[in-house]
């Protein structure tokens, strides 16, 4: 099939006038090349399309030559930015991989995600949305809390100061995020136990890939996954002669996670229930954390998860015995089956 790969590319101008972690949701040339090679190995003909402001006109002009889209474009602005490309594709009647506009919008908004999880009785940390730094704190919230951006992913906005222990620290961090990112902010109870990521692929039925664990180098209240730029971003910074401090990862990833079968079953079950509750399709990566007593809580869902060969989901697939091409081909096939396309390769 002719598979159009749609993406948001990291460019030197992406670094101008923006925080470094703004690049977290963009794709490197190395990732695009790896996907192009994987699609070719699967017998498809890749068509590379960057999701610029002209993407709708491009898709409309070329829709007759596209059998299906492999969508990894997460958008560059707007509270529902991940929904932009799927909306265009549905308007034009072009099949595509992954979740639909509604699911992408809900999963990007962590507060809305929690509302749905709670309605399905899926455990997620107690939380509160803040409209101003001075909003009255809910009595039910217990410190420590972790302060996050509502509609961002890839650890954007997280730092050593994200975990707060009192009202003064809370208000200071809420004010900082609102000022620096101009985004909505929420706080949730921080769970200090082990942290896992559970990839889910497929539809009927979906199934989990091997569970990975983020093992933090500095255990304690600040033991969270924080943003650290990929090597392509570091390279761009050097080429642009930008003298900025490069944050380094403070965790390592273990896959498969060293857990017993009982905990594995619980985590997998929660992942599948959450995947279905939010209406995810084809692929997704979920983050789950334990409290100090070992009880699991779903933190968020990433229906357009990082897909570079070195990222969590592809690494988990490798542990399951899947090559990178196998993973990419499977995602295309899941979508092709949903659309009842005649050929999936």
If you had to describe this structure to a student in words, what would you say it looks like?
The strands form 3 sheets. Strands 8, 9, 10, 11, 12 and 13 form a 6-stranded antiparallel β-sheet that branches. By secondary structure, this protein is α+β, with helices and mostly antiparallel strands. The protein has a domain of 65 residues: Dna Ligase, domain 1. It contains 10 helices and 13 strands. It starts with a strand and ends in a 6-residue tail after the last helix. It is globular. The longest helix is centred in the last third of the chain and has 17 residues. 40% of the residues are buried. The mean pLDDT is 90.
List the helices and strands and how they pair.
Blueprint: E1 2-7, H1 29-41, E2 45-50, H2 55-62, E3 68-71, H3 84-92, H4 101-108, H5 110-119, E4 127-130, E5 145-149, E6 163-164, H6 167-181, E7 185-189, E8 195-201, E9 207-208, E10 212-216, H7 231-239, E11 251-254, H8 261-277, E12 283-290, E13 296-302, H9 312-319, H10 324-339
Please identify the top-level CATH class of the domain at 126-190.
Alpha Beta
Q: Approximately how much beta-strand content do the residues carry?
A: 15-25%
The helicity comes to: 25-40%
Provide the gyration radius in Å.
20 Å
Task: State the helix count.
Answer: 10
Distance between the termini: 6 Å
Write the CATH fold name of the domain at 126-190: Dna Ligase, domain 1
Order of helices and strands: EHEHEHHHEEEHEEEEHEHEEHH
What low-confidence regions span 5 or more consecutive residues with pLDDT below 50? none
Mean pLDDT: 90
Total count of strands: 13
Sheet bearing the most strands, described? Answer: 6 strands, antiparallel
The CATH architecture of the domain at 126-190 can be named as 2-Layer Sandwich
Q: Which class best fits the helix and strand makeup?
A: alpha+beta
| Overall form | globular
């Amino acid at each position: 099939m002719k598979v159009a790969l749609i993406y948001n590319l990291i460019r030197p101008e992406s670094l101008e006038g923006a925080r470094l972690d703004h690049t977290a949701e963009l794709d490197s040339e190395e990732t695009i090349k790896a996907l192009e090679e994987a699609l070719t190995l699967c017998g498809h003909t890749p068509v590379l399309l960057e999701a610029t402001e002209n993407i709708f006109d491009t898709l409309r002009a070329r829709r007759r030559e596209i059998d299906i889209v492999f969508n990894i474009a997460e958008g560059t602005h707007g509270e529902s930015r991940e929904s932009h490309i799927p909306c265009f594709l549905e308007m034009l009647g072009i099949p595509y991989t992954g979740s639909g506009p509604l699911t992408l919008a809900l999963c990007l908004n962590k507060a809305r995600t929690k509302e749905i999880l709670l309605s399905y009785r899926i455990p997620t940390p107690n939380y509160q949305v803040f409209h101003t730094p001075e909003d009255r704190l809910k009595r039910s919230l217990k410190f420590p809390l972790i302060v996050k951006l509502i509609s961002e992913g890839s650890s954007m906005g997280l730092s050593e100061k994200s975990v707060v222990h009192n009202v003064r620290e809370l208000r200071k961090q809420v004010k900082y995020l609102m000022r620096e990112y101009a985004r909505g902010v929420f706080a949730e109870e921080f769970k200090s136990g082990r942290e896992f990521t559970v990839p889910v692929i497929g539809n009927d039925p979906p199934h989990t890939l091997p569970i990975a664990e983020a093992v933090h180098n500095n255990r304690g209240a600040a033991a969270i996954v924080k943003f650290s730029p990929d090597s392509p971003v570091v390279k761009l910074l050097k080429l642009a002669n930008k003298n900025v401090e490069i944050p380094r990862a403070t965790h390592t990833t273990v896959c498969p996670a060293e857990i017993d079968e009982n905990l594995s079953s619980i985590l997998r079950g929660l992942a599948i229930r959450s995947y279905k509750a939010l209406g995810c399709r084809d692929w997704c990566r979920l983050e789950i954390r334990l409290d100090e007593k070992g009880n699991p809580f779903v933190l968020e869902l990433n229906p357009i998860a990082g897909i570079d060969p070195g990222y969590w989901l592809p690494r988990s697939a490798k542990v399951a015995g899947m090559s990178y091409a196998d993973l990419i081909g499977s995602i295309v096939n899941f979508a092709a089956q949903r659309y009842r396309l005649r050929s999936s390769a």
